Amino acid sequence: MGASSGARLIYTAITSLDGYIADSEGDFGWAAPDDELHAFVNDLERPIGTYLYGRRMYEVMVYWETAPAEAGAPEVELDYARLWRAADKIVYSTTLPAPRSERTAIERSFDPEGVRALKAAADRDLSVSGPNLAGHAFRAGLVDEIRLLVTPVLAGGGTAALPPGLRTRLELVEERRFRNGVVYVCYTFGGEL
User: Is 38 exposed, middle or buried (0-12, 13-18, 19+ CB in 10 A)?
Assistant: First the structure.
């Protein structure tokens, strides 16, 4: 898993302590970052040149295409909106008729070899978002790094942050604790169990 050549493919998720990115009603309001955490996420995202999204994650993230840009908006949000708009986006969807953002292409199916070629040719890292799409990337051995922002919340069920059935060792390469109780952990792949 995660043999790297060229750019890295990184999976980042804000997750509850019990491993969910949204609860059973689809709510993820508990995951909203404060300014300290948002600034940290912005710095994590700064090297990303291309976002790979599933349809549902794209529909959440496309907000940043038209996010308020007035002077009263918090600087961390303005910064993130600039980063998001500057990156390329590939949305994997069989139902989305057209992109609702600039620099966005729609692919009808996930092609592991196409993503492998994209990684090899890219001069900036790529990010995969959305647990379903990330599951395809994990199973194809394309993900090089897992970044989790673990929120001190028990969601009790919902959409799992990581796909079921994956078995591998991970190596902790970075960690950080935030004032709001969130813990950031970053792992690379360490081999078979």
Answer: middle
CB 95 within 8 A of CB 55: yes
**CA triplet 108, 159, 42: central angle to 5 degrees?**
75
pTM: 0.93
CB 54 within 8 A of CB 93: yes
User: Quick one: tokens of 126?
Assistant: 């790529």
Beta carbons within 8 Å of 135's beta carbon, 6+ residues apart = 163
Q: CB under 8 Å to 55, separation ≥6 — which residues?
A: 91, 92, 93, 95, 96
65-100 pLDDT, tens digit each: 988 766 678 999 999 999 999 999 999 999 999 999
Render the chain in DSSP notation, one character per residue: ----SSS-EEEEEEEETTSEEE-TTS--GGG---HHHHHHHHHHHTTEEEEEEEHHHHHHHGGGGS---STTS-HHHHHHHHHHHHSEEEEE-SS--S-SSTTEEEESS--HHHHHHHHHH-SSEEEEESHHHHHHHHHTT---EEEEEEES----SSEESS-TT---EEEEEEEEE-TTS-EEEEEEEEE--
